[in-house]
Amino acid sequence: EEEEELELEEENDKSDGEGELIVDEEQNIGYDTVCAICDNGGEILPCEGRCLRSFHATIEAGRDSLCDSLGYTITQVNAFPNFYCENCKHKKHQCFACGRLGSSDESSNPEVFPCVTANCGHYYHPKCVARLLYPGTDPKQEAMRKNIATEKTFV
């Protein structure tokens, strides 16, 4: 595995005195190319969980886009063997349709389920995805909701 160092501006290096941010370029494949907080690109850190989101990890990385960032130092970021966002760590994700948080923990009655499309990363409540796919009073809606909750997946 090759690691490639990203060049940071000299002022960034001096501001925290903690070196350069090292990112494995292979990790970026399939992950969001913009920050989940501010929707801008730049130096972002991908979550290695199922959500596929990326974040400005340091204040410096998010400065140009006025992003709050995750607030880590470069040293902290470089020390991560793997980075998982708080949602993936705690297995709680927002439904992409309604925005409500739900458990995605498969071992304890999950409330939201991941889209099966490999590069999606979105989670949905069974009822929400059924309403999106079968709007109104379509009788297929309830069958779809039950199927998702039972099989824990949908296409």
Automatic annotation (TrEMBL):
Span of domain Histone-lysine N-methyltransferase NSD-like PHD zinc finger = 32-57, 91-138
Could you read off the lineage of the organism from its UniProt record? Answer: Eukaryota, Viridiplantae, Streptophyta, Embryophyta, Tracheophyta
Q: Which organism is it from?
A: Trifolium pratense (Red clover)
Q: Which domain of life is it from?
A: Eukaryota
Per its record, how is this protein called by name?
Enhanced downy mildew protein
The record's section on Gene3D superfamilies has:
Zinc/RING finger domain, C3HC4 (zinc finger) (3.30.40.10)
Region Disordered, annotated ranges: 1-20
